[in-house]
Design a protein that fits this description.
The structure is a homodimer. By secondary structure, chain A is an alpha+beta fold. Chain A contains 15 helices and 21 strands. In chain A, strands 5, 6, 7, 8, 9 and 10 form a 6-stranded antiparallel sheet that branches. In chain A, strands 1-2-4-3 form a 4-stranded mixed sheet. A 4-stranded antiparallel sheet of chain A has the order 12-13-11-14. In chain A, a hairpin with a 7-residue loop joins strand 8 and strand 9. In chain A, helix 2 packs antiparallel against helix 5. Chain A is globular. The model of chain A has no long low-confidence stretch (mean pLDDT about 95). At the A-B interface, strand 10 and helix 10 of A face strand 10 and helix 10 of B.
Amino acid sequence: MTTAALASMRADLAGFRAAIADVPVIDEPALVRLRSRDFFWFSPILKAQLQRKSADLVVCPRDEADVVVVARAAARHRVPVTVRGAGTGNYGQAVPLEGGIVLDMTDMTAIEWQRPGVVRVQPGKKLVDLDAETRPAGWEQRMHPSTKRTATIGGFVAGGSGGVGSVTYGGLREPGNILGARVVTLEPEPRVLELRDDAAQKVCHAYGTNGIITAVEMATAPALAWIDVLVAFDELSQAVACGHAVALADGIVKKLLTPVAWPVPTYFKGLEQACPEGRSLLIAMVAEPSLAPFEAMVAARGGSVTYRAPTEEGPGARPLYELTWNHTTLHALKVDKEITYLQSLFPVDRTLAAIAEIEALLGDQAMGHYEFVRYNGVVAAVGLPLVRFTTEERLRAMIALHQQHGVMIADPHVTSLEGGSGHMRADIDQLGFKHEVDPLGLMNPGKMTSFTARG
Amino acid sequence: MTTAALASMRADLAGFRAAIADVPVIDEPALVRLRSRDFFWFSPILKAQLQRKSADLVVCPRDEADVVVVARAAARHRVPVTVRGAGTGNYGQAVPLEGGIVLDMTDMTAIEWQRPGVVRVQPGKKLVDLDAETRPAGWEQRMHPSTKRTATIGGFVAGGSGGVGSVTYGGLREPGNILGARVVTLEPEPRVLELRDDAAQKVCHAYGTNGIITAVEMATAPALAWIDVLVAFDELSQAVACGHAVALADGIVKKLLTPVAWPVPTYFKGLEQACPEGRSLLIAMVAEPSLAPFEAMVAARGGSVTYRAPTEEGPGARPLYELTWNHTTLHALKVDKEITYLQSLFPVDRTLAAIAEIEALLGDQAMGHYEFVRYNGVVAAVGLPLVRFTTEERLRAMIALHQQHGVMIADPHVTSLEGGSGHMRADIDQLGFKHEVDPLGLMNPGKMTSFTARG
């Protein structure tokens, strides 16, 4: 059968299910619906579009052999496949747009091997468990999302772009962070491809549309003793300027620099004592030996340290990174259901000025939230402002306002990979690669919209 | 006696010598002359000015108590004091301009303590020995000069500004690198000052004119497995562009990125096989897990790896860092006595363009040698071009040419601290601090020219 003929067939779920034999499945409708969701509801727009989307079946491979069986059956029976880790994304990465199966990778958790500076692991491993297993030898992940305690490494690589740690190591996709990946192609005769260096980047941030990842090889960082610090400032601009200065201070080893404007701290329940009324915060993670020089920098810039404790990640602990990145939005949503957010990237040659402009323009319509990162080797600020949702038009106007002032927006209110990127198209490498690994376009069809299966 | 009265006294060396009792001294004239020299002869101008300078006596304190005895005696008997480590500097930092004593710190080598990320050590410890003692616990110095195998930590802190490792951690003086220092003041009643954070920076790069350092507390880096790599390119511009790209790649962990133009590699004896005729080189130190992505970047930019081996520092070994920074100049001088060099800092917003301009302007008069560093949080290129010395006027014209094109020069052909800095004045903190720690101006008088003792 030609690719075109296969592509024109209708999904045959019964045939698929018979073909995968003993690979574990979940077909209880409530559970299937649950595992077809992620945190897309952070966006009222995605919420309306995605809340009724569901897979028909969840499949839970135990190993790569199971993945090959599933890929073969899906290709032959034309069943759409949406790959999922823990479903902690908030762009609908793990939501099947056209039904079919959700391929739940959370049973594939083995570390294949580790050596100094590198770990190779199956995709379903939780990030917090991965660190727990590499720390005894002195290593940890270079970066992780704020959902480290629930998210999987495969989900992070496939659906993320960076996070806590990016202020030192840049984005996930910068050379040297992801060293390799193994993927199973979605074809009638699936192949297992070993990707290295540049080639391995093609699976990163492709929202699971570029082959089924069965292993990732990650460069690790020396594990350090991290200290969570909260610093209060009279003005947001001081918190931003201080965060920027520390981001530029290469002698201060840090993982997180997050300025947030008052009243964002009112959403941080249980930390009231460390969040003085009316003051903006800088949330930071600093390596223990850098704490004293960090505090000297902070004091010189008008900040007062209100909280300082080693980062703890065990059950019941509350690492400060769970106040940052998209967790900030989550805390606000718990209090106020009307809140949503934007994602922006400020121009690196005038970061502080551009932030001041946007703050002035948005006024009370947005609550400032920034994350300092390195981006292509340069310190940059990402904005994740909290906004009260009224209408989609109003949200689009705010986005336009950013763009008119030279601030790039990565729109978190669209379902496609392309719409969410700053470039409005899939990376050319990703798109070309998709023809190799998913020629029938069965991996969450509709997600990579610029892809069309070849005849 | 008032400070002014003390300052007007003549040096009383005999009185000094009697007062220091059993503190070890060297008075054999040939040895005293030898220990009054450093590598100032890299500069033909400094060579003419400094080659007849010498101390009258070398004093070798065994511990801080000895240092206090010497400081008291020097102040009371008005004897100039020039502090010296291993004398590996090449700006005449350790050359006494007005005689007196050289205070040779190389017998003070104890590590006071170490803990994860920090080591506190006496100033005479050789950098290579310091790393050897912290590596078993997993730590190493964040940066070191190319003279690591002979230089001392105290000499580096007092006379250096950065080096191998600065491409990651910035300059020595950036916050978080030097955490503390203890200094003995040069007064009739010496005090022992503990300096922390910002205050500790006042002893850095002050050429030993700001108190006698008896301990430094250095932030350390996780010790990694480093690989020495040589990469050959058809054109210098490719080596420079590749080095710049790797410097900006935050996922590639590195310590050294040094592009050198052909024919500089002809000075690298014993490495002929790795230095193909007519080709420029990028000399690099890369962490082992970053080697594959580094080589992928290099290959994509037209480079061919000609040498690759773990960095070895034992006797008989030849770490590649001994081809870089001012060692490059040393190798050239061994072959051609007419060679000298300049030191420049390129504008960060147009690094590659400015390098291309200077290369075109200097043509055959200079051999390109660059070092990538981080400087105030931004990737920057330092230039250390090799030039054939003809006249001082010609050298000054080359310096002016750089400055006219927006390239800053730190002149290595002047004896004063101020002349060698880009700012032509002592840091205001350093100058103010000198009044506290050396009110009589006895620490290598003439070195910090903007200082005048108060009456």
